[in-house]
Amino acid sequence: MSERETSLPDLLPGAYALVRRDLRVAWKRPGDVFNPLIFFAMVATLFPLATGPSPEQLAFSGPGVVWVAALLAMLLSLNGLFWSDFEDGSLEQLLVSPLPLPALALAKTIAHWLLSGLPLVIVSPAIAMTYRLPGAVIGVLMLTLMLGTLSLSLLGAIGAALTVGLPRGAALLSLVILPLAMPLLVFGARTVSFVAAGDSYAAGVYFLAAYAVLGLSLAPFATAAALRISNE
Amino acid sequence: MWTFFHKLASPPHFYRLAPQIVPWLAVPGLLCIAYGTYAGLFVAPPDYQQGDAFRIIYVHVPAAYLSMLAYMVMAISAAIGLIWRMKLAHAVAASAAPLGAWFTFLALATGSIWGRPMWGTWWEWGDPRLMSELLMLFLYFGYMALRAAIDDTVKADKASAVLAIVGAVNVPIIHFSVEWWSSLHQGPTLIRAGGPAIDAAMLYPLLAMILGFSLLFGALLLRRVRSEVLYRERRKRWVRDMILAAGGRA
Q1: Residue A2's pLDDT band (boundaries 50, 70, 90)?
Q2: What is the per-residue burial (b if ≥16 Cβ within 10 Å, else e) of A117-141?
């Protein structure tokens, strides 16, 4: 009885402390945040090099390229989501914590999004401008990336929890998550293309928002179950 | 009812029971396929637009249907295994995945062959159903890769079960997103309001093929689960007793 009374008020501060800890750790190791961003810019550089620099073509393929680059950069950063905690044993501390594991998994996921998804959203206008996307399109691009990277963090956390501690987990994570992430790519990139062609963006943004809500409500439970299985 | 399930879930009982069920699925299944193949190739009239090329649907549609059915069987038995800790259910999920991947590949290959005379190309990126079949194949590959990467069977069972369930939640979303993305494929003819839009002489062989493929899938699945069970229980006493009773040496 008394345990229940004490554990419930601790839930939000506990999750908040976990988010703050992850942000502080990232502050000490800025490479973890910047490397995916540099990778993002590099992938965006590959496409003009591969297909030629004609402005029409760049403006046409811009939304898709930025989205694919963001998807790959997210995958790159997802590898590390539980890895260092698994290495130094703090993941096991989370597992034995009296707080509900899905809440802690959600806190880890949100910290991951703040450290990898949000920076991508902030950097994306710079890449989009080099692809000569107009200002209104860039706004929608940022909106879709904001919702899409949040969903990717949530979905990817399940994959990261399943593959943590496995040899060659990085390749496996991509193999497991990419097919599941394709709807996000379809709606994200297509919506931006529609706006660039003068169409409405409501349908795609609604879908991405619905996916994010679905992910927020279901994914932490799957991540928690996967973490328990991986650490048996 | 419950005792029946408990008995069925016990590996030695299943191992003895499965070979008795297999012929009841395999024989009608092969008969259905034999009738469907004959009627589909020789009896059904050629399509007024597609000529004889449409006849590939007698393999393509059942294979595509089975690729979905196998995923459902896999996800549901994975969930049963995860929730009720039933070992046999995990063995079913593990055995269904390669079969499902094969049916998916078959659906893709026949779709591609059909596309050559119809669309003039082996592969059409714009077709939503070809696309969702391809994603389905990737889902199977991810599932099998995860299972293969984990050495401990119990852990592999549980981890891949979580993935199968997450995948099952995502399959409708993937289909919807790909439908939204583009459309070039011919609309649904079989399951739609107002009954199937297909001639009876074309329809019956197709239904026979779908039924036959499903029965054959059941028979193959039972055989695969049986050997999976034998492999997983290879250190157990009942396997040793069985080998000794058959005159072997343990």
Answers
A1: very low
A2: bbbbbebbbebbeebebeeebbbbb
- Please give the ipTM for the structure prediction: 0.86
Half-sphere exposure of B101 (CA within 13 A, CB side): 14
Task: Confirm if B247 and B64 have CB atoms less than 8 A apart.
Answer: no
pTM for the predicted model, two decimal places: 0.88
Q: Is B176 on the interface with A (CB under 8 A)?
A: yes
Quickly count helices (H) and strands (E) in chain A.
11, 0
State the Cα–Cα distance between residues B93 and B101, nearest whole angstrom: 12
Distance of alpha carbon B44 from alpha carbon A220, whole angstroms: 53
Query: A–B: how many Cβ contacts below 8 A?
Result: 77
Structure tokens, A58: 């760049």
CB within 8 Å: A218 and B169: yes
**Residue B193 pLDDT exceeds 70:** no
Q: How confident is the model at residue A67 (pLDDT cuts 50, 70, 90)?
A: very high
Q: Do B173 and A211 touch (CB under 8 A)?
A: yes
pLDDT digits (tens, 9 = 90+) for A97-124: 888 899 999 999 999 999 999 999 999 9
Kindly list the residues from chain B whose CB atom is less than 8 angstroms away from the CB atom of residue A179: 135, 138-139, 142, 174
What tokens appear for A64 in the block?
Answer: 């898709």
Q: Mutate which of B173, B174, B175 to test chain A, going by most A C-beta atoms within 10 A? A: B173
Using the Cβ of B169 and the Cβ atoms of chain A, whether some distance falls under 8 Å is answered with: yes
Q: Which residue has the tokens 């809500």?
A: A213
Q: What is the pLDDT of residue B188?
A: 55
